[in-house]
Automatic annotation (TrEMBL):
The chain crosses the membrane at residues 349-375, 396-422, 428-448, 505-525, 785-806, 832-856, 886-910. Keywords: Membrane, Transmembrane, Transmembrane helix. The lineage of its organism: Bacteria, Bacillati, Actinomycetota, Actinomycetes, Kitasatosporales. It comes from Streptomyces canus. InterPro entries: Lipoprotein-release_system. This is ABC transport system permease protein. GO terms for cellular component: plasma membrane protein complex. The keyword Iron-sulfur does not apply.
Length: 926
């Protein structure tokens, strides 16, 4: 336990009194210790949870990518051609025996390099024919007269991956040879249904100089149809109707016959050219994003590298040992392409997440430093007295460090434990490092600040308020350095953007802008106070003048609270703008994909009463019924252009409301008999046909002459880049019948709209389309990070102001008690405390809102939110940019102002409940 030793107390020479420092301080100020512990625990929890949360959503994103890619792309196949014809027949047959393949399968699995982990339940091996075998049986379906074709597969583990629906599993003798007279097989339920196969059916396959009958002994149902066992080659469970390439019109069925693994040697007698294969299924549950580079390296080594060579060397051997895999053994997989696609998405999202993490982390560090600085400022007299009575600077610093560590270390450990419980997945070392960093910053903030202030022994100091103390040269140099760094970060971000890997300086751009703004406002803060002090002095009351005078006498150490406030408000505003930009981009993309809030369309004319029924559905405000003809041919040519017949008033209102090609309804009116009908056209269509009148051939044989009067970029009724829009009255009654209804409204009921629409109609809702754009946990995880950054920024801003007000609360309480002894009323005291705290709060709130707004506009050219907002494969993606979010600008600033006013009112009320003498004693004690 650290101790403080007081000298010169009147005791005999050599006598000294020892007081336990840490225990005394904790007993003297338990509230401050508890507040510091809560701050450290919360900050350590957030810091430790962040890297684990990133690991969790990145791992989930990789697993989702693997699931969406399906087993036929993620599976790893090791395959070898049929045994060499140079071998004796018995040796060729023995190479295909199950026991030999099983031994080789074990070696193949052992040769897979880490970190690639296989799923033994879905991995398998066997023998299959590589050429389709036509079967002449006439009872098999023949859509165009061409015989059906089959593939024979002897795959291990059929009984474990399928349940028998009818019959039994196929069997074969352990020593069966290629000359076997008959073969047993099973088929899946889908294959049996499509190819009209029943238990007992016999399929005749051509063989070497004979016909090989294959008797179906059972029909099986896959237990996990989507698993790698069945889905790596989906033909095993589901037959295909093959269409020959044009100009041929032939179609034929192709299915799989599942034979017993012991019957694999019989496949040598067929013309199917059998091959051996070892089918490896990666375990999706063990895929981790941080292992992606190592996974790609392992796959490259397997496909054409050391792992493949080692695999061949380890399991190649003399033919007589029956363990050889031919030297032409190859390994193929598309898992590396899946990893590359995922890495591209992750590399697009990571810089945006780094910006949010840098902002929230900087705010947390500033608040921790501010807490230590305010504590040092509050205890300035105490520490100055200790220095005057002989305490050394190293000893004082060590005792302050111990005092803080006793509180911060357990709080940091508690925060770390809470983070580990809240986010159970992710890397442990990063979480520990983050919690340790928070604890270390907290422990050194107070000692370093005290050492800087009390390095010279002095008891009395002059005025050090913000209005009188001029910034030192060192501070000016530091501020100019930060200004240069902020300018460089902003320019770099605007030039390079976040599409690639951003460095630390670029990630800190929003925070640096907030820091520079805070430093500028601190320098400007005394100017309005001096300007208002003189007019306030002429007022009859003393409250306004006194409050401004006290606000101007705020300690120069107020730079840290103001810095924390502006940095936190800027971080909250930037994070809110990111979320707003993501939401707006998804809304806009969904609108482009649907054309309105809902779309009901068919390829044929809609029932006449459908628009009225849809108009009465819940949430529908307006609708526009249009006729869309996809096969209209301008100038009787070969090119088709969608022709849309609309009601000018309804369609103009819809276009204006959706901001998709707004126009005036009068543009489509006119065109008397014999004249060309006015038309709206896309840019591409107008460029091709010009503004002269030209005929349009309709599918019913009629002709409409149109003249393009307005060129639009897009229109709600057509989702493509080519269209013509005309007045429906210009069309024939048959061509004018609506085929599409576009609905507008809020909270549309998709179930009710689908119920009112015909069964043949397709119904698309903008809200449902919007949900489709979130296709990866990477996107939702990044959104969660920014939502947390907004909440953390707002919370730390409120906390910074609260700590600042709490630091000066004893002085304000004592002042209020003295003034009450001089006749100050409670209402006047309340106004005094509110007006005294408002200047800093107003400066922080207004400055934070303006800084956030300026940061968004400065950085928006370099911030691309497409990776978070929209799917990477969406062809309609038009990009997503930062959007100013009023709530993220106003709400944190309003919270700061409300806290300042609420604190003043609460302190005035609490002081009124206590006597003036007690308040004066409390203030003197402090």
């Amino acid at each position: 336990m650290s101790e403080v030793r007081f000298f010169g107390t009147g005791k005999p020479a050599g006598s000294r009194e020892t007081v336990p420092w840490v225990r005394t301080r904790l007993r003297t100020a338990p509230g401050a210790a508890c507040a510091l512990a809560v701050l450290v625990a919360l900050t350590a929890c957030l810091a430790a949870a962040f890297p684990r949360a990133v690991d969790r959503y990145e791992d989930a994103g990789l697993r989702r990518a693997a699931e969406q890619a399906r087993a036929d792309r993620t599976g790893i196949e090791v395959y070898a051609p049929q045994p060499s014809p140079m071998l004796r027949p018995s040796e060729r047959e023995d190479v295909l025996r199950p026991d030999v393949l099983a031994a080789q399968y074990a070696k193949v699995r052992a040769g897979v390099p880490r970190p690639l982990v296989l799923d033994p339940g879905q991995s398998t091996y066997g023998v299959r024919t590589t050429l389709n075998i036509p079967v002449p049986d006439p009872w098999l379906p023949r859509p165009t007269g061409r015989p059906a074709e089959v593939t024979l597969v002897a795959q291990a583990g059929l009984g474990a991956h399928a349940s028998v629906a009818e019959g039994r599993l196929p069997r074969a003798d352990d020593h069966v040879t290629a000359t076997a007279p008959e073969l047993e097989a099973a088929v899946t339920v889908d294959t049996a249904k499509s190819l009209h196969i029943k238990v007992g059916s016999v399929i005749h396959s051509p063989a070497a100089g004979r016909t090989l009958p294959i008797r179906v002994t059972g029909i099986v149902t896959p237990r996990d149809p989507k698993g790698a066992y069945w889905s790596t080659h989906s033909i095993l469970r589901t037959p295909s109707l093959i269409r020959e390439p044009a100009p041929s019109v032939d179609m034929y069925w192709f299915g799989a016959l599942l034979v017993a693994p012991e019957a694999a040697p019989v496949l040598l007698a067929t013309p199917g050219r059998p091959e051996r294969y070892w089918q490896l299924a990666p375990s999706e549950r063990t895929l981790r994003a941080r292992d992606a580079p190592a996974l790609r390296s392992a796959l490259a080594s397997l496909e054409a590298g050391p792992a493949l060579r080692k695999l061949r060397l380890e399991i190649d051997g003399p033919v007589t040992e029956l363990t050889a895999i031919d030297g032409q053994t190859e390994i193929s997989t598309d898992l590396d392409e899946v990893l590359i696609t995922y890495d591209r998405l992750r590399e697009s999202v990571a810089p945006l997440v780094a910006v949010a993490a840098s902002g929230a982390g900087t705010v947390a560090v500033v608040v921790l430093l501010m807490a230590g600085g305010l504590t040092a400022d509050r205890r300035r007299s105490e520490l100055a007295l200790l220095r005057a009575r002989g305490a050394s600077l190293p000893g004082l610093t060590a005792r302050l460090f111990a005092e803080t560590a006793v509180v911060a270390v357990p709080a940091g450990a508690l925060g770390l434990a809470a983070a580990l419980l809240t986010v159970p997945e992710g890397r442990f070392p990063y979480a520990i490092a983050a919690a340790v960093a928070v604890t270390a910053v907290t422990c050194v903030a107070l000692p370093l600040r005290a050492a800087a202030v009390h390095r010279v022994v002095r008891v009395h100091t002059g005025r050090e308020d913000i209005s009188s103390v001029r910034p030192s040269r060192r501070r000016t140099v530091a501020e100019l350095t930060l200004l240069v760094l902020a300018a460089g970060a902003v320019e770099s971000l605007r030039r390079r953007g976040t599409s690639g890997s951003a460095d630390d300086l670029v990630s800190l751009a929003p925070v640096l802008v907030g820091v520079v703004a805070a430093l500028v406002l601190v320098r400007l803060y005394p100017l309005p106070l001096r300007g208002l002090a003189r007019p306030a002095a002429r007022l009859r009351g003393a409250v306004a003048h006194l409050s401004l005078a006290r606000a101007g006498r705020t300690s120069a150490s107020a730079v840290l609270p103001l810095l924390a406030l502006l940095t936190a408000l800027t971080t909250a505003a930037f994070g809110g703008s990111v979320l707003a930009g993501v939401q707006e981009a998804r809304d806009h993309a969904a609108l482009l994909a649907v054309g309105a809030d809902a779309r009901v369309e068919t390829g044929a004319p809609l029932p006449s009463g459908l628009p009225d029924r849809l108009r009465r559905q819940p949430g529908v405000s307006t609708l526009s019924a249009v006729s869309v003809t996809s096969e209209a041919k301008p100038e009787n040519g070969a090119l088709s252009v969608p022709l849309v017949g609309v009601n000018p008033a309804d369609y103009a209102a819809l276009s204006s409301r959706t901001d998709m090609g707004a126009f005036e309804a009068a543009r489509l009116r006119g065109g008397a008999a014999g004249e060309a009908a006015p038309a709206l056209a896309s840019t591409a269509t107008a460029r091709m046909y010009g503004t002269r009148p030209f005929p349009v051939l309709l599918p019913d044989g009629g002709t409409l002459t149109v003249r393009i009067t307005t060129v639009l970029d897009r229109t709600p009724a057509v989702l493509g880049s080519d269209f013509l829009v005309v007045n429906r009255e210009a069309l024939s009654p048959a061509a004018a019948r609506p085929t599409t209804v576009l609905l507008s409204g809020t909270s549309l009921d998709g179930t009710a709209i689908r119920k009112a629409a015909p069964k043949a109609a397709s119904v698309h809702l903008r809200s449902e389309e919007r949900e489709r754009y979130v296709d990866s946990p990477l996107q939702t995880g990044a959104e969660g990070v920014y939502a947390t950054a907004v909440a953390a920024g707002t919370g730390y801003a409120v906390l910074a102001l609260f700590l600042s007000l709490l630091r000066t609360a004893p002085d304000r309480t004592a002042l209020l008690a003295r003034l009450r002894t001089m006749g100050l009323t409670r209402a006047a005291g309340r106004r005094l405390l509110i007006l005294e705290s408002l200047p800093q709060a107003v400066l922080a709130a207004v400055g934070g809102a303006l800084t956030g707004w300026a940061t968004i506009h400065l950085l928006s050219p370099g911030i691309d939110l497409t990776a978070i907002a929209l799917p990477s494969a969406d062809p309609s993606s038009t990009g997503a940019e930062l959007r100013t979010d009023a709530l993220s600008l106003v709400v944190p600033a309003a919270a700061v102002l409300l806290l300042a006013v609420g604190t003043g009112v609460g302190q005035a009320w609490w002081s009124g409940r206590r006597g003036s003498v007690q308040e004066l004693r409390a203030g003197d004690a402090r």
